[in-house]
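pipeline/complex-builder :: batch 7 item 3
reading input block
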Amino acid sequence: MNKNQLMKFFGFKLVRFIILMIAVAIFSFILLDLSPINPVTAYLKGAAVSESQRAILESYFGVNVPLPTKIYHWLLDLAQGNLGTSLIYRAPVIDVIIDKFSASIVLMAISWVLSGVLGFIFGVVAGKNKGSWIDKAVKVYCYAIQSAPSFWVGMLILMVFAVYLGWFPIGFGVPIGVKSTDATFMEWASRLVLPTLTLSLVGLAPIAMYTRNELVQVLSSDYVLFAKSRGEKGWDLVKNHGIRNILLPAITLQFLSFSELFGGAVLVEQVFSYPGIGQTAVAAGLQNDVPLFLGIVVFSAVFVFVGNLLADISYYLIDPRIKESEFGD
Amino acid sequence: MIKKQSDDKRQWFLYPANLRTKTFVIIILSIIVIVSIFISGYFVRDIPTSFISANQMPSLEHIFGTDWMGRDMFQRTIAGLGLSLMVGFIASAVSTLISIILGLFSSFNRFADELVAGIIDLFGSIPHILLIILVSIMFGGGVFGVIMGVGLTHWTPLARVLRSEVKEIKTKEYIHLAENLGRSKIWIATKHILPLVVSQIIVGVILMFPHAIMHEAAITFLGFGLPPHEPAIGVILSESMNYLSSGYWWLAFYPGMSLLIVVLLFDLIGENVEKLLNPETAQE
């Protein structure tokens, strides 16, 4: 693959990214603008003000400005990185998001890697021993966990490990009464274990099912039959003919799961009261903090896009077949 | 030498049955369970409170235990499931309608097809749970907000399937013939395309249902929509969060378990209906 094609690929992706972001920004802005939330009421939170003060606030928040003008200003500000001021935190939205997201990214990254690795191993073990009890156990587990609400799984884990066994604290990013900057690494890490465990246990199901089905398919193919007839068997066979074939699509699938990862983090952070981006999104939504919520929506769209982009890159750059078919002409 | 293979199917339950009958029985049983939950959930309205029997462990009298007001958790769970099923039903109806309209709209011309693909991409680019919150805020929250939030966001998988089906059907000769005969696009879409995608729609709807119910539970768990006195599953679970550290595990365990079972039942129905409708497996 030469440089020219690479430039074409990323140029295409960049254009797509910009169009998608503008669409997401406008779309979410219109949705929130149509909502019955009055910015002045949300800002005042029931505080009594006189009519003239209210009028000043209304003109400050631009209540009566027509929608196209509002959208224009919003896009202009967005392009300059100005997402407005959060009503809950009384701080610039961008700072709040960066602060909360850095707490979440650790949670999401660890559980993303863990769920990928564990899911892949489970899938390979199940697929190799198709029809055995271990295959059935993995299948039952995956079906059950995919049908279970992830927050309920989190609650069960919380009950078992934090309430009954008492191994881990029940929640919060750092102990009560300790500033987040003063917390020791262990204090902080011990509060990360259970949310990470929950997200990993939930996230490994799709990847395990996918890997299992793919491996079963590969193992019933002709070239595996041929390899068997040559005398290959056991793990060597799976390693040489199975894993190489299914690893790449599995990685791609894992990159495509960024959206579910974010959704899972929202619920799990709520259960474990972990101060991350998900909990902030819920708080912003419940307390009508429109600028913060809009910011998080746009930010999460960027996050999901990055996941899809990485999946595409892993497809185009690593798999030789697709590279040839796509860029051959 | 062909051996007769149906011997292993002989001893199934009470009388010999083939796969088709088994599938039907599974589907009908699951539907009966779900309908009975829905109907009994409708009739359980006023659950008696008695503070004498508050926070009891599960027993024969209260098989799911009781909550802090002495209400029977089994009744609350059934009522909550009924509510969730209702929300899921309305939301799926809305979603199905949207995906059918968009799927058929994509058959009109290239531009319409690109537009539909763009809308699907747009909805897929925001994490689902945030999208539901966004839409439910737009409708002002409450039960209506939750229903619309769940209903307006679950159409993407079905619409994607329909779009690709429509693309394939559009290459057929009778479509060109109908176009040359001067039939309108709407006539072709409803008379030539819609009947061919009905089976995809049915399977898509059944598989959409469990997602809708789960997301409804999640969104009410987060505190959007249903008021605390409504016994929705999400509300029950978020309430039980307060009692976790007291060790009242049954408040959270059983309602979640029932939700899981209902979702599994829907998956079961979906899979079996697909087995019947899919020509590759229907003849087994």
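note: Chain B is about 65% helix and 0% strand.
queue -> next item
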